[in-house]
Amino acid sequence: MSWLARRLLSGLGTVLLISVLVFLAIRLLPSDPARVILGPGAPEASLHTLREQLGLHLPLWQQYLQWLAAALRGDLGLSLDSQVAVTQLLDQRFANSLALLSLVALCNLLLAVGLGTLLALYRDRWVDRLTLPVLVMFKSLPGFVLAIALIMLFATSLFTWLPAVSLLDPERSAFAQGRYLVLPVAALVLASAPYLIRLVRAAMIEALHSDYVAAARLRGLQPWRLVLGHALPNATLPLIQGLALTLSVFFSSTLLVEIAFTFPGVGSLLNDAIRLRDVPVIQAAVSAIAAFVVLVNLLADLLATLCIATLRTQRLQP
């Protein structure tokens, strides 16, 4: 429990530090939130009044403490562009991004376990020799390049099976609009799955040649039990860590993919906010992303700890 408490405190400290750095970086942007709201032709008296209403006349440390106190109460302010509550904008966009993320994670998990195990069992055979260069090729391509290629292949030039733009209905769940998710999910999976597949392949090869599996083989266990009951659990630990790393960088890698498909997620929201100098949205979105990354890493560490304990118990059994 002391380890968990330390990790929680460390995570909270990380999120707090990132919020401070983002707050300071936003204040260094060459823009005036009051002028963004009132327009370039607004009189100076109106600008001065609005700056006082927004608290921009206060010292930076006081502005940050006011924002932090309001954020802890669940009040992230209003968007300077749309005058909509930032929490409402984040709720809508985060729900869409999490739907996309969950599908990408599920596809990555299935591909990594299935194909990674297959390549390990047929190591150095024709399947392995043909698949590895393809995985390296996809791993080297940026996500936005894959997104554009998929749009050209399946939505515009060659085939018109799927929509090129993800025009989600905000009144319906993203899962209920699956045809708009196919291409974004495919682009992100093609960009991230090769790393996980190769990770599982390497872990499975090491596990299959370990003394632990050799001893199980000498006991006369069937091949499928060796793979599923002994080798695959040993490959779970690097898979958990690799999947956590993939999810942690999701919001940075998905930004251009969301832009390519006009997908209404948190990445496109942050991009629009930076373009419009929408300070409250930028501050809240980056802080929320940081909290999400910290949470994912914490859950991955917990799962890895449980996995290690389970494997040690299993190996002690006769």
TrEMBL record:
GO terms for biological process: transmembrane transport. InterPro entries: BPD_transp_1_N (IPR045621), MetI-like (IPR000515), MetI-like_sf (IPR035906). GO terms for cellular component: plasma membrane. It is found in: Cell membrane. Residues 94-304 form the ABC transmembrane type-1 domain. Its main location: membrane. It is a multi-pass membrane protein. PROSITE patterns: ABC_TM1. The keyword Ribosomal protein does not apply. The keyword Cytoplasm does not apply. Keywords: Cell membrane, Membrane, Transmembrane, Transmembrane helix, Transport. The chain crosses the membrane at residues 7-29, 98-122, 143-168, 180-197, 242-261, 281-311. Belongs to the binding-protein-dependent transport system permease family. OppBC subfamily. This is ABC transporter permease.
